[in-house]
Amino acid sequence: MKRDKRRTFAATTVLIAPFVILLAALAAAGPSLREWGQKRQHGGEPQSIDINLYTFWTDRDLGDCAIFGFKLDRFERELVTRTKDLFGLSVRSVPIRIHLYHNHDELERFLKRTTSWKGDFTHNGGYYNPAGSEIAIEMTGDEREDISGLFHEVTHALFNLSAERARWSPWVAEGVATWLARSEIGPEGAVRLGGIDHRFLAINREGPLPLREFLEADHSQFTTAQNRYYYAQAHLLFAFLVERHRDRLAAYLKSEMSGVKVGPATFESTFGPIPDIEKEFADFVKSLN
Ligand SMILES: [Zn+2]
Q1: What is the CATH code of the structural domain delimited by 45-164?
Q2: What are the residue boundaries of the structural domains of the chain, listed by start?
Q3: In the 8-state DSSP scheme, what is residue 57?
Q4: Which of 42, 173, 182, 244 has a beta carbon 3.0–4.6 Å from 168's, enabling a disulfide?
Q5: Rounded to an integer, what distance in angstroms lies between the CA atom of residue 217 and that of residue 175?
């Protein structure tokens, strides 16, 4: 009996031992396996840095990330407190991950790995993935442009996190993001929210789009080779509405936030007949030239 028991004990030990050894090896390798997974996802030699609920994944100088993090934090705080009447954004508790890439290939490789994106992404330089509150962006090396790109994508993130049920029309989503992308942070941290991007004026002059059709444009029109005309018009239309019809714009945004798909009819009932608003919009654009 004794011998049998011993044998059983020995057999169990032998059987269990390899698993125990394997678990111990996995536990020891845990941090480096995690790191390997994160490096693989980032596609480079990244380091991460957390700044006020922003986590940057990058192989850039972490000092640059500290500046980006400081500016994004200033931007977000001012945006939430100063546009309560217009956007009604909530204070965020969910962290936003930001991947900074050196070129377009790295950005596209990331999208293929982490999203089900199948379309053309040649003509876009940044991406916000609501599934993981994750931003991926191609850096240009020009600090002004890079922070502008980050304001753009962070705007998408903040709007999505604030109103998850909202069904934003692409022109609203891109209009507000391109408008807020021109925000400025002064050396003392003073924030100017929004602004006109004059490059869009030249593009819009080349190809203004009929307003009614434009209001119904879908996301694919913002990713094709012709997407600059859609971005330019979304930008200028949003700037026009925020400068000339702020209260009505606030009401219109509330209807988009309700979760019901709205279209030109809601636009018209909020701002008036489309031909009239189209004429007023054209005059506004002319006044900027
Ligand atoms: Zn966008």
Answers
A1: 3.40.30.160
A2: 45-164, 165-289
A3: E
A4: 173
A5: 13
